[in-house]
Structure to design on (698 residues):
């Protein structure tokens, strides 16, 4: 047994991403005498325009970016021989400091699956909805029962909603008579409704809502909260089976000339890993926790033979398909190209919380699932089994999300200088799963042995094919449409009815017949997706919360199997401990060392049909209760697997199942000002009488 040196800190966070910022910030605010260290490989983000101005997120996608780490997958035949590249946040705040700021929440049944299918008591939707509400101040609409109004992170429509989004909603209303409009497309229980899309942007200031600024940087006077950037975590230090510290080296990107000699730091109470779906399993494996054969390959002594570490990698498949736009369209293209006049204009507007720098250009959309015979026919037989096994009994689960993007997400140096809009669509629940493992037992800078496994199942291609067809029909009818941007569209055969057009004078009529696609056309669409499908940055699942015998790494209390005092919880996007501030004024400093905790969405046992930021917040809230209990702290009598008897008012109005029948008002197609319409004027639904289980708050 090693003779552990005196502890340098009470709590150490291995990774300064979203999760670590919120957890460290909450703990530091709860007890400023608590000695907390955050180790982060990347750089600071404090008051940097590229981070606080949401509209500058495009700049982080550059291959030269130092705020992202790019993980290169193995070449895949399913991707036409490509090596998919998936980025993850590499700065204080992690993904929340660089992402698209889209506000999208999971479906209630996603969390119910976590609880029932994967045997995790207390992780169902009725327990997690109160935590979702806890994280946010929902500025988009008042008095919505499933949203919160006192949380640290602001949610709004942003500083500008483009006319491209409004036109999308108008065309959808005029052409899709099987679905309606809603003022809240993220109410937790429904899908198949079009609507405006909120953002993690403060509606008053126009600033990004990120935990780096609202949990860490706002505590600059606390000398016990220490942030060390440019430090790469190598492994966990153990005393027997108990974690006691971390070993780290200088990051080669920020500190290329620094000494690479390992350094050790020790914690008296808690060691936290918060390095994401890529970093957390890698640290585990370098620490001797993983598949025995893999560890032996890299000459790592086996501490715990846990084959599921690094497996179960999941993400969302996304495609941005561009269309040429007229000069009247409001787009981000000039801003992306660095046009001086456009940048100056929007910089001035941002000081008032307005303009494109206070927005993201993704202002409308729908979480959609098939309804009509034509929908099912377009999805085809490849999707039938997936529908019956996964979707038919979960009516709140969307098959895809789609919506307009007011920009060309592509190479502007080769594209003609003009305005564009894109139609984005996302496969919300891909069947294909991959893996991520270490390629070196000693070098933490070594690239991952990464297999994304995108499009390895035909059902995944079927959903994307449906997305292309659905979105193209809307795009061709939008008044700003001026043809397809041909380099990023399927290569249909000459003579095909689906053949793409270059420059055109305007859209087709609303009542024009839909395009008919042949089997050859469908193959062209599949080939297109193999060449152009990309990641959504939504990596999760590589330290899954499942029973050990079913491929799990952690149990429902986030303990790593085969260890003591080792947990995983949260995401590099965001971990959130707001419960600690509200319910505990101070720590009992006589509490024993607790050991090892994880704070990243690698624990997710299955995917969620949404951007993962919101789910990461929720996992962090749940982890806050569990960690507090393990530290010997009381949270007003509320345990990790229970809730209080206080109910959320207004939930009797909600129904978890989507409408059995939906109908648009007869005059819907003629509405011009869709942005200002209310639900009561838009929706004429007939619902089932079933109601959700009682929802409670802590």
């Amino acid at each position: 047994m090693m003779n552990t040196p005196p502890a340098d800190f009470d709590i150490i966070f291995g990774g300064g991403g979203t999760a670590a910022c919120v957890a460290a910030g909450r703990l530091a605010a709860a007890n400023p005498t608590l000695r907390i260290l955050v180790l982060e490989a990347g750089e600071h983000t404090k008051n940097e325009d590229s981070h606080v101005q949401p509209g500058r997120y495009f700049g982080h996608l550059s291959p030269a970016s130092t705020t992202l780490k790019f993980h290169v997958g193995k070449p895949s035949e399913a991707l036409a021989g490509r090596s998919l590249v998936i980025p993850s946040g590499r700065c204080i705040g992690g993904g929340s400091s660089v992402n698209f700021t889209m506000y999208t929440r999971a479906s209630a049944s996603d969390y119910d699956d976590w609880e029932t299918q994967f045997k995790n008591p207390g992780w169902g939707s009725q327990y997690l909805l109160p935590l979702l509400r806890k994280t946010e101040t929902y500025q988009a609409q008042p008095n919505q029962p499933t949203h919160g109004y006192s949380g640290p992170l602001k949610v709004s429509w942003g500083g500008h909603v483009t006319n491209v989004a409004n036109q999308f909603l108008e065309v959808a209303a005029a052409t899709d008579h099987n679905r309606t409009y809603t003022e809240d497309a993220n109410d937790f229980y429904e899908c198949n409704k079009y609507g405006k899309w909120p953002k993690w942007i403060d509606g008053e200031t126009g600033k990004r809502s990120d935990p780096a600024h609202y949990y860490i940087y706002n505590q600059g006077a606390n000398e016990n909260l220490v942030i060390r950037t440019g430090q790469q975590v190598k492994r966990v230090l153990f005393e027997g089976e108990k974690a006691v510290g971390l070993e780290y080296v200088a990051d080669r990107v920020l500190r290329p000339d620094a000494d690479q000699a390992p350094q050790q730091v020790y914690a008296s109470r808690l060691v936290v890993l918060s390095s994401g779906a890529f970093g957390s399993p890698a640290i585990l494996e370098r620490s001797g926790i993983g598949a025995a054969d893999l560890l032996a390959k890299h000459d790592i002594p086996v501490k715990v033979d846990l084959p599921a570490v690094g497996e179960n990698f999941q993400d969302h498949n996304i495609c941005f398909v561009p269309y040429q736009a007229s000069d009247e369209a409001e787009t981000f293209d000039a801003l992306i190209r660095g046009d001086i006049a456009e940048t100056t204009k929007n910089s001035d507007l941002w000081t008032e919380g307005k303009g494109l720098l206070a927005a993201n250009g993704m202002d409308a959309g729908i979480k959609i699932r098939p309804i009509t015979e034509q929908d099912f026919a377009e999805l085809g037989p490849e999707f039938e089994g997936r529908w019956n096994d996964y979707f038919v009994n979960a009516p709140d689960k969307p098959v895809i999300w789609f919506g307009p993007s007011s920009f060309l997400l592509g190479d502007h140096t080769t594209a003609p200088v003009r305005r564009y809009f894109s139609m984005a669509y996302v496969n919300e629940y891909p069947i294909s799963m991959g893996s991520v493992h270490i390629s070196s037992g000693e070098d933490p800078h070594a690239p991952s042995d990464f297999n994304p496994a995108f499009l390895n199942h035909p059902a995944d291609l079927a959903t994307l094919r449906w997305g292309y067809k659905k979105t193209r029909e809307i795009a061709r009818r939008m008044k700003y449409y001026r043809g397809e941007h041909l380099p990023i569209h399927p290569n249909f055969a000459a003579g095909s009815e689906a053949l793409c057009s270059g420059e055109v004078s305007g859209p087709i009529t609303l009542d024009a017949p839909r395009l008919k696609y042949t089997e050859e056309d469908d193959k062209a669409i599949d080939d297109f997706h193999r060449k152009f499908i990309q990641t959504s940055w939504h990596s999760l699942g590589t330290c899954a919360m499942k029973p050990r015998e079913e491929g799990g790494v952690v149990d429902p209390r986030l303990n790593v199997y085969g260890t003591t005092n080792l947990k995983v919880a949260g995401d590099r996007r965001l971990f959130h401990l707001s419960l600690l501030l509200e319910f505990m004024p101070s720590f009992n400093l006589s509490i024993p060392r607790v050991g090892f905790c994880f704070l990243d969405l690698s624990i997710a046992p299955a995917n969620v049909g949404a951007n993962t930021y919101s789910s990461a917040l929720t996992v962090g809230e749940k982890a806050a209760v569990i960690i507090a209990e393990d530290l010997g702290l009381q949270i007003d009598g509320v345990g990790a697997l229970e809730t209080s008897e206080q109910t959320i008012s207004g939930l009797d109005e909600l129904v978890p199942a989507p409408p059995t029948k939906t109908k648009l008002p007869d005059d819907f197609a003629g509405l011009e000002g869709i942005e200002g319409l209310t639900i009561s004027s838009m929706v004429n639904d007939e619902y089932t009488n079933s109601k959700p289980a009682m929802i409670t708050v802590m």
Notes: The domain at 9-156+207-314+538-681 is CATH 3.50.50.60 (FAD/NAD(P)-binding domain). Confidence is low (pLDDT under 50) at residues 569-593, 634-698.
